[in-house]
Design goal:
By secondary structure, this protein is of the alpha+beta class. It has a single domain (11-209), classed as Mog1/PsbP, alpha/beta/alpha sandwich (Protein Transport Mog1p, Chain A, 3-Layer(aba) Sandwich), CATH 3.40.1000.10. The chain is 24% helix and 37% strand. The protein has 4 helices and 12 strands. Strands 1-5-6-7-11-10-9-8 form an 8-stranded antiparallel sheet. The protein has a 4-stranded antiparallel sheet with strand order 2-3-4-12. Strand 2 (34-36) and strand 3 form a beta hairpin. It starts with 18 loop residues before the first strand and ends with a strand. 40% of the residues are buried.
Length: 210
């Protein structure tokens, strides 16, 4: 049974413009969260994280546009389960997107955070199991590491890693999942280099749960 699928894919490869994290200001929103003084805070889900000032943020409008583009790109190569895929992605709320540098046509490493309301009994490892199984239905995706259970900031998490071929590039995805208030909360790092992965991992390491 498909319970959850987070699909930012490679949408940030096509982003034309972002704002520096230190200059971007968002209005408070309990569900979507807010950004101020270099920190993203979400009171509904009870977490916060620090943002390096040199990184770039994607606006709400741009997130919606590029999420749609990513869904369309992924579904073109989906051989089975298209209806389930489209239903899953329509239920996704993309809360937050962060890029390590100003996006260009050659691509950029990024962190995307999304949530989906889940049935009772869903756990982080089930989310990762289902997501991994679904991603590899697209022949451009390869599962690099199976589901691992771990702790981050005192919370139960699970993790998988994938690789995806996009044009002439091969991108790596590190996919974390946890549960908050009956929602799956996912942190997906798409990275082009080890240095970018380390930079984005530091952002995830700054997670604080209340």
């Amino acid at each position: 049974m498909l319970r959850r699928l987070y699909v930012p894919l490679v949408v940030l490869l096509l982003i034309p413009a972002c704002a520096l994290a230190q200059h971007q200001v968002q209005s408070p929103d309990q569900f979507l969260g807010e950004l101020s003084d270099g920190k993203y805070r979400n009171d509904f889900f009870g977490f916060a994280m620090s943002l390096p000032p040199e990184m770039y943020l994607l606006s709400d409008q741009k997130r919606a546009i590029y999420k749609k583009a990513g869904v369309e790109m992924f579904s073109k190569n989906l051989e089975k389960g298209r209806a389930a895929f489209e239903k899953a992605t329509s239920q996704e709320v993309l809360l937050f997107s962060l890029a390590v540098s100003k996006p260009e046509s050659t691509g950029v490493s990024s962190l995307n955070i999304g949530v989906v309301k889940q049935p009772e009994g869903v756990t982080p490892d089930l989310i990762c199991d289902d997501a991994g199984a679904f991603f590899v239905r697209n022949p451009n995706y390869k599962l690099i590491s199976k589901t691992k259970k771990l702790k981050r900031a005192g919370n139960d998490f699970a993790q998988i890693e994938l690789a995806v071929v996009s044009g002439e590039q091969t991108l790596s995805l590190r996919y974390y999942a946890t549960m908050r208030k009956g929602y799956s909360l996912t942190f997906v790092i798409t990275h082009l280099s080890k240095a970018d992965l380390e930079s984005l991992e530091k952002v995830v390491d700054s997670l604080e749960f209340s």
